[in-house]
Design goal:
This protein has 567 residues and is of the alpha+beta class. The protein contains 19 helices and 28 strands. It has a 7-stranded mixed β-sheet, sandwiched between helices. Strands 5-4-3-6-7 form a 5-stranded mixed β-sheet, sandwiched between helices. It has a 5-stranded mixed β-sheet with strand order 19-18-17-21-22. The radius of gyration is 29 Å and the shape is globular.
Amino acid sequence: MANGDEDGVVHDLFSLLSSEDRNFLVRNNADQVEISSLSGKIVGLYFSGSWCGPCRRFTPSLVEVYQDLASKGDFEVVFISSDRDDKSFSGYFSEMPWLAIPFSDLEARKRLKELFKVRGIPNLVIIDANGKVSTDQGTRVVMEHGVDGYPFTAEKINFLKEQEAAAKENQSLSSLLVSRSRDYLISKDGSKVPVSELEGKMVGLYFSLHTHKPCKDFTQALLKFHEKLKEKGENFEIVLISLDYEEEHFKEGFQAPWLALPFKAKSCEKLARHFELENVPTLVIIGQDGKTLRPNAVELIEEYGIEAYPFTAEKIAELAEISKAKLEEQTLESLLVAGDRNFVIEKTGSKVPVSELAGKHIMLYFSAHWCPPCRAFMPKLIKAYNQIKAKDSAFEIIFISSDRDHSSFKEFFSTMPWLALPLGDPRKALVQRKFKIQGIPALVAISPNGQTLSTQARQLIQAYGADAYPFTEEHLKHLEEKLEEEAKGWPEKVKSELHAEHELTRVLHHEYVCWCREPGSGWSFYCKECDFHLHPRCALSKKEGTKADAPNAMEGYICDGDVCRKV
């Protein structure tokens, strides 16, 4: 058999898929099919497993493509299982209308994975009728193009990409929302509404995943926004583009006044690709001419509400000027007072009026008990807090928790010598949005007159400790000069047994994670090729350490170094 890692290799399907005592593949009803029957066909080698969530979600898409191509008679799929037991294999294979390498032939399955360098699943390798690999990115091709990707050649994929580029250039409401088999949207009651009825209107395409909490929260804000526009008689419609996996979740997120693409319509993924969707919620604003007016209006609606309409460049510029003026007028009260919510709390539960904190240096500390980097950062922050307090009593920290229950909040807050917003306080969302907090721990430094000094105070405390205070530009410039002085006498490059592969170069990094798993900021000895860091103390020491076990994050979050972010 030809070597699979050479370009242009011609594979003999019989040699590829058979073994010494087997010349057949199997169906899910145990029927045996001779491998020779695949001669001259396009064959997809489908590496997958029942335990793999992305595989379970992809398989129905591949089944749909397979069934659509069945009448052609020249396309077949062979399942190569990554399951660990026959029961799991059989249960998963029962959902598949194609062939498989028998589960009992472990050697053949391992050989194929090694031959095609399968490092992750689902993975679909397409072999053309002549035995050459058309693409080893079959999963992506099927997800992006479905049956239109057939026969899965580079020429066909390039043609489809050119079509998509042309569609972007000539975008219209119809080109976005109409497909070959559907020229309508659906309302909440299931009735069909022709896409043509939206022509000439401004339309918001709302990409949402209802199981994702930020989408749930924004859905309510968008509902109110839409209702207010309707009351004013504005011609603005919302079309839900649901990315939910379960129809139940689709229905829960589908609000009555809106329209939607049908659940799991192929256009949903196509539109996500068309608009290069990076996260949800996303609200794409389509102008009356069918062109994209605003790629994502979520933050505009969250910050300005109905005032953001009609999303024109002039309107956004006007709002930016208003925001600039508000920023200049910002006070601690404008940040932390909302109606009768005009207090923070001590550990005893006693209320401290926000007005008593006016005129002090304040840091807003976004954190949570479940977050390992937050817990790791706490000792350093407490030390800095005590040192700053010792030289300036007009300084305070306010803990803003992302914990999910009161016991966790209380346990974590009990270790802190400062104040807090009550858990679940609605002001948390306001300040989080105000400062665009995307990950925790995060620290925002506020001056005595209420102005924002830094949204990167965590990195500054990490780098300089209490010396970072009072976080003014002039003071930080002075600290950078001291950093340069600190490195005098250090080598520009070092060789370390902890990273024998390459030489390490001395560089300044705002924040990083050392080999020893402790966060760092400032000087680092760094390998760019491997993205490998050492603290100066680790790089210049002769001692070797041991990597600590990485702490586990709460479900739904990824902890990367010293920051936890939502998945």
